[in-house]
Specification:
four-stranded parallel β-sheet; binds uridine 5'-triphosphate; 6 strands; alpha/beta
Length: 157
């Protein structure tokens, strides 16, 4: 069965990177010019994933905002003429990369519990899990390599 769904747990407290994460989600910390979680969503999309569930928590609203449209910002960039065209396209594209859904992990009870919050999203389908703070950059996305291995060998227990 083709793997088209991914789950990204992003509801942790980020205690190892305090105080940076006191009010900023760890997954939103920038790496050069993009938040970490955008690299992760891009990795999933480049691996053939079409539907992504991000597990969030209180105080993680910035993640939802990042993958949403921002009409006021887009209008400002549009009126900025040709020199703003490239960044306008980048900003709009972020919200069209995949079908992105969100669910809250109501208590921070660990990674396994976070993934379990995706139970009804994945149903009986195989799915990928990408940690919301684990950026892996490569020409051949790591997630895609794992999906190919799954498709070739099936579930290995
Ligand atoms: P981590 O263990 O790296 O995240 O989990 P953490 O709990 O925020 O780390 P500390 O506090 O710095 O030690 C890997 C991923 O799983 C998510 C985190 O947000 C991170 O993206 N996670 C972790 C959840 O979604 N729920 C949890 O209960 C724990």
């Amino acid at each position: 069965m083709k793997v088209t769904k991914a789950v990204i747990p992003a509801a942790g407290l980020g205690t190892r990177v305090l105080p940076a994460t006191k009010s900023m989600p760890k997954e939103m910390l920038p790496i050069v010019d993009k938040p970490a979680i955008q690299y992760i969503v891009e990795e999933a999309v480049h691996s053939g994933i079409t539907d992504i569930l991000i597990i969030t928590n209180r105080g993680k609203g910035l993640i939802e905002d990042h993958f949403d449209r921002v009409p006021e910002l887009e209008a400002r960039l549009t009126s900025g003429g040709p020199e703003k065209e490239k960044i306008l396209k980048e900003i709009v594209d972020i919200s069209h990369m995949a079908n992105i859904y969100f669910v809250r992990q109501k208590e921070t009870r660990g990674l396994g519990h976070a993934v379990n919050c995706a139970r009804s999203f994945v149903g009986k389908e195989p799915f990928a899990v990408l940690y919301g703070d684990d950026v892996i950059i490569g020409e051949d996305p790591a997630c895609g390599q794992l999906i190919r291995a799954y498709e070739e060998f099936g579930l290995v227990c």
